[in-house]
Amino acid sequence: MDSLCIVTTGGTIDKIYFDDKSDFQVGEPQIGRILEELGVAFRFNVIPILRKDSLHITDSDRELVRATIAAQPCRHVLVTHGTDSMVQTAQVLSSLTDKTIVLTGALNPARFRGSDAEFNIGTAVGAVQALPPGVYIAMNGRIWEPTKVRKNVEANRFEPIE
Asked: Which residues form the L-asparaginase N-terminal domain (predicted)?
């Protein structure tokens, strides 16, 4: 992998808590800071295109993500995305057959102690380097094909579609 292209769309991974409002809002992308702190041995470029909770991502937003990725010269792409509609976005990206694209996110904000963000990012970075071209989801320590996974909201985890 020469360079990793990272497209950020918001989601829980980038959420910050406002005490005065008792509210969460999507903040700046966290993945660049995380990768720099970990001292990764590859070049990466972060392209922030959305700052939304994934429940608010529209079909036109998904097309913007697809078009942004299609316009990039890199073959390896990591997308940070909210977990609630990650599968739908992955399915839209499946038309991009010449790149390896891995979507990941977090069930708890990256700024929170005990967040799954770093683990999921690490899984996604390994997957994007090792897998053949296609679109994948990296969550809960597993790599999923978008047509074979769903988010179980009650259990707050990804699981295979039966």
From this structure: 4-152
CATH number at 58 reads 3.40.50.1170
Q: Which of 75, 72, 125 is nearest to 102 (CA)?
A: 125
Q: Residues for the chain: how many in total?
A: 162
Residues 6+ apart with CB under 8 A from 150: 87, 158, 159, 161
Instruction: Identify which has the larger pLDDT, 32 or 2.
Output: 32
pLDDT tens-digit readout, 113-128: 889 999 999 999 999 9
Nearest partner of 64 among 48, 53, 76, 46, judged by Cα:
48
Cα distance between residue 94 and residue 111, in whole Å: 31
- Convert the pLDDT of each residue in 7-22 to its tens digit: 999 998 998 865 555 6
